[in-house]
Write a structure and sequence with these properties.
about 55% helix, two-stranded antiparallel sheet, alpha+beta, two-stranded antiparallel ribbon, about 200 residues
Length: about 200
């Protein structure tokens, strides 16, 4: 891994301000001061995040209905349809929720960095460098969604599933801007190492 990579939370913005200062003779002069601060990362949070959740919940229910219908058809063709009537419907719902719900996110976010809800709203999931998260991160992110009350964590700066997997949700446009700033900072830091006179 390239040790010069810049995390999206560590992109520096450099600023120059001019202010009046007295010199040794007591005269007021314009003096330039340079400083830097970390660039603000515009995470998708609050109601837009809750919008992803609601849209994805609708898509999950559609997927669960199709999956349940397909399961019923297969069991019917195998002459085992009585299995569905013998299983408690709440247990079946719970099993679907433990498998299909995280599976929905796992499949979509591991292949395209987005779920259908995020896709509709133009958002992506990234790692700390603004790149595609690893499969392990997406796996952790997907299964942490089954924690009770987890959807309400989207009203904080980042959701629990983000914190636990070290991932972020950003607008695509904001991500592209951050990548440009990160590449510029990486270039400047590399130049300062190879040419200290700059």
């Amino acid at each position: 891994m390239n040790e010069n990579r810049v995390k999206i939370t560590e992109i520096k913005e450099y600023h120059t301000v001019t202010r009046k200062e007295k010199n040794a003779a007591g005269e007021l002069l314009d003096v330039e001061k340079k400083f830097w601060k970390y660039k603000e990362v515009n995470y998708v949070k609050g109601w837009p995040r809750f919008g992803h959740f609601l849209l994805d919940r609708v898509f999950y229910y559609i997927l669960a209905i199709f999956f349940g219908f397909a399961l019923g058809m297969v069991l019917g063709l195998l002459g085992k349809s009585y299995w569905l009537t013998d299983i408690n419907s709440r247990l079946l719902d719970f099993l679907f929720y433990l498998t299909i719900y995280p599976g929905y996110y796992l499949l979509l976010e591991s292949t395209s960095q987005t779920s259908l809800g995020k896709l509709v709203l133009g958002r992506v999931v990234v790692d700390e460098y603004g790149e595609k998260p690893s499969f392990k991160q997406i796996l952790r992110r997907s299964f942490s969604r089954i924690v009770p009350f987890e959807p309400f964590s989207c009203f904080s700066e980042t959701g629990w599933h983000d914190n636990w997997s070290k991932t972020y949700v950003l607008r695509k446009k904001d991500l592209e801007d951050l990548k440009v700033f990160a590449r510029l900072q990486e270039y400047l830091e590399q130049e300062s190492k190879t040419n200290p006179a700059l």
